[in-house]
Every structure is written in C-alpha cells, then in structure tokens.
Amino acid sequence: MFYKFAKTVVHIILIIIGGRFQVQNKEKIPAAPYVVVSPHTSWIEIIYLGFAVSPTSVHYMAKQELFKGKFLNWLMTHLNAFPVNRDNPGPSAIKAPIRLLKQGKVVGIFPSGTRKQTNLHLKRGAVTIAFKGKVPMLPAFYDGPKNFKEILKRKPITIRFGDPIHLNDSDKEQKEVLEEKSLELMATFDQLQQEIQATKKK
Known about the structure:
This protein is α/β, with parallel strands linked by helices. It has 7 helices and 7 strands; from the N terminus they run αββαβαβαβαβαβα. The protein has helices at 2-18, 44-52, 70-78, 92-102, 120-133, 148-152, 174-201, and strands spanning 22-24, 34-37, 58-63, 81-84, 106-109, 137-143, 158-161.
C-alpha cells in the first residue's frame, strides 16, 4: 500500500514539474514474474521505470548503505527495495530476488554505468538471477534527465522496452547460457538506444 501511495504521489509531482514521459513498446512487457533490467546512470531512471511498468509493482535491488538506520530501513523496505552488498555480494544477492520471483513478483536490477563488454560481469548478475529464477528478462532503456535540474528543464523522457530474453529455452550448459545472454542483453541496450534516437529524428 505504501509503495502504491508513494508511486502515485511522486508520479503526480514529476508530471507537474517535468512533464509527461513516453513509453515505447509497452506491449512487450510479459506477465509476471520477470526481471526488468536497465542500465543505471542515475536514480531518476529507476523511478520512471517503475512508472512505465505500472500497474505492476517492482522490487528493487539496492545497495545496503541505503538501509542504515531504522527510518531508512523502514522506508526502503516499504518501497519494495531489498539490500545487497555490491562490494562483497553474498548468497543473499541471489536468494532474495529468486525468492521474490518464485512468489510471482517482478524484480528490477540496474547494472551500473557502461554497456561495454569490459563490464560484462555487471550484467551477468541480472542474467544469473533470471536464469536461476526461471523467468525472462525484460530489457529497458531510459533516455532523459540525469538529475533534478534537467527534470525542471522538462527535457524529453523516453523509456523503450525490448523483446523479453528467455534463458531456459535451450539445453546448453549454464556457463554458456549466461555468457550468451549477457552479450545479448548488452546488444539489446545498444539497439534500444539507437531506436530511441531514430524516433527523435522523425
């Protein structure tokens, strides 16, 4: 209830100050459970992605530092976030999201920064969770403001979804599947970015 209330309030505020946003390919969103994955460059795309998959609620993986103190722990928990130690991820980094997926929930994972192949390991965590949870990944790409100042300038905001990536549809070894699907995920991010830019030129 708190998650839905907070999402509604924030949504209204952001529409007032930043304008409406465009969601492309919303018909590609599969039925829950699934893992939605998007490159992470700021906190803003996390919020807008939550709006884009509405009315579905998203359970977010967040760094454990955001849960320090009783109030922050209460707030993050009620915003459907769960903690993970990004510097030294333990079994909970896999177990918590898989448990949510088995309950029919949607898990949101935002690998930090670049889509370059040198940072393939940043994407493999999301792929591993989807593989072990036996659910598809939904690739998404956010194009828009990176900070609050840019929101106030009403910079156009677009979220584009790609085709769901299925991981349990082959007889290949786990290592091979994770490698193959990680590369496919990064290629999809690049494709979605190019498609957004192409729609801007029309």
